[in-house]
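Action item from last week, closing it out:
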Amino acid sequence: MKRALTFSGALLLAHLSMHASPLIVAHRGASADAPENTLPAFNLAWAQGADAIEGDFYLTRDGQIVCIHDGDTKRVAGTVVKVVEATLAELRQLDVGAWKGPQWAGTRIPTIDEVLATVPEGKRIYIEIKCGPEIVAKLIEAIQRSGLKDRQIVVISFNADVIQAVEAAAPQFKTCWLSGFKREKSGAIKPAPDTVMATLERIHADGFSSSHDLVEPSLIKRVQAAGYEYHVWTVDDPAVARTFVERGALSVTTNKPAVIREALGARP
């Protein structure tokens, strides 16, 4: 963590988080209604009242940062092109909107500069890094070009090494380590709570962001008591969203920002 919290400070943070309206984060934009990780999806998310957008980013072969979730383009473009082996120009030739509907035909994979340019004053972007630490230097350059304020940036990744690299190179940006959970044949849930806590401490993350499935309330309390932020994804059910708000989640990531915004109410 960047700032050590006293035990009383951690308790205060947990108390405040449970009584504050969480940020509504649009997962890959308003991806229930528009093609994910595209400018139309991000612009629609802002129109639907999102407090932040979340996008997935890779570094291309020619050193450009592009916004796409998968390691190849098969699912969104119908053609298999490996992102890290392609140039920006090659990726720009692909239509990544038609799969969602004819009204989105002709939509292209955006660069990180284009995505950052959509972020209004006072809003945030959760930048999920899908490749490795090799992207960090180019990422910092892109953020600096954007003119966004440090507090508008949150870097997230399942790759703990990426979070550690961002913390080392740009500690001014907030970071969250991502993890889902799975149940082993033995019945044990992995990763174990001790593993989560040890990872957060080792990589100096600011927070932990988990799937809503199988995460134990006791782990959330433990994360918060240690002074880390807690965030949750990907929640489209209003009842589930309310549950995690009660547990102190500082943000709820959703494919349906308008639905979750209505369910949770406007931010003060």
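Closing note: Residues 239 and 263 are 8 Å apart (CA to CA).
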